[in-house]
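Posting for a labmate who doesn't have an account.
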Amino acid sequence: MKKPIKKSWMIASALTIGMAVLTPLQAGATSVEPANGVTVQIEQQITGTIKSVNGDGINLKGRDGKNYYISFYKFSEQQLEQMNLVEGQEITVEGGVVENYSDFFTFDVYKKYLPKEVTKEDLTKLEKMFNEVKKLEKELSGEMTEEEFDKKFEEINKVHEAMYKITKPYMLANWQPQPFEEYIEEFPFSEKNIVIAENDKKQLKAIYEEWVKLQKDGQDEKATEKMNEFYEILDPYFEQLNPPQTFEEYMKEFNLVDIPAETLAKLKTIYEDIQKADKDHNYDLQDKLYGEFYDIIEQFIKPQTFEEYMADYEFKVNEADSKQLKQIYEEILKLDKKAEQAKIEEKWDAFHTILEPYFEANREILISASKLTINGQEYLPQ
């Protein structure tokens, strides 16, 4: 099991329009800082092969051997559909380098999601608040204490709430709720031949219509409570849709060695208690039970070899570093996980210090796309 590499996390300023997005704050691309402190984007042209497509962006392997993350936030959903981006496709992208993932979500992008009726005066207020959120987000740091982190998030949320107060009337005025029949059809129950009982469907429709009314009246808290009722009725149908794994199915995921029958029996009891806690929405108990479960199971998991562990990385390390890394890795495996935790942490730190230059060399450069060419077809933001 890999020791996690520390990351900081931040919210990309979208809560005010219901698009909460968590993005890893990873160092990557370069930017220019003029004397006046304004960041200038460097326009670049990159040709490469798509490694993966995810949402509004792609991971690209450039012809120059570098890794890129390309954001298409500036492009419309219709354009993204027309592009039909697929893994293995070669494309050419022009765009500006940004410092971190949150920089993709600019105020101009945010404005695209707002109703056209928003006045210039309100847009000016929103832009000021938007920039304040960006400033606060940049102050978030992995070096912060939990208390400092929570305090900074409180500041961010206060600004989000103020933005929501401005946008809410416009959103409600433009909101066209789906009919209940259309909404319920979006759940994939029919695909699995799961039929909602008529009595439940009648109750769901009544709750949905009450929820729509509460939303239109701006009664957010009551609307949330009503939607919770809606999903409580649907819970048994979701269980049919995604039945929980049996203990035996779950255990197939682990590469275990020499586990006694009495230990397996104990694990099965804990696993069944975990599922019950989940069903009862007792998540504190569920977390506690998972801790017990993995404390037991870790003793019997066959560890990866050094070669298996390193195969997960895209890059290759040189022979001298590989030899040193293998020695550290094998020393870690010999240490007692409970009694020698401090030594294990120290060894992992040494391990990742050797790997850091490789991470740095292979870190993705972040590009905000302003032009895309696929098979001679050019796309510009609309």
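Reply:
Got it, the structure tokens are right above this. The chain has a mean pLDDT of 86.
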